Amino acid sequence: MGIETTRILDEIDKHTARARGSEPEKIRESLAAIRALCDLLLEDGMQAPKKPRAMPLQTEPVNRPQSVPAATRLQEEGANGDSLFEF
C-alpha cells in the first residue's frame, strides 16, 4: 500500500469529528470523504499483498575463454617493429 493504514484511519477520525459539529451540508461532505477512505482501505485489503519473489539463479554454463593457439608473426618488408601502428 502506498499510504499507511494508520494515516488513513487518522483522516477518517478527522472527518468524523468535523461531521459531529457541522451543519447537514458539511456532514454529507465528511461522510462522502469517510466513504472514499473506507473504500480505499477495503480495496487494498482485498488484494493480496505482493511478496517479493525470489529470482532463480541461471544455471547456464559459464563461457570460459578458450585457449588461442599462438599466432605466428608475419614478416613483411618495410615493417619496422612489433606495434600495430607502425607501418
Automatic annotation (TrEMBL):
Q: Which domain of life is it from?
A: Bacteria
Pfam families (alphabetical)? DUF5327 (PF17261)
Report the InterPro entries cross-referenced here.
Answer: DUF5327 (IPR035218)
Q: What is this protein called?
A: YwdI family protein
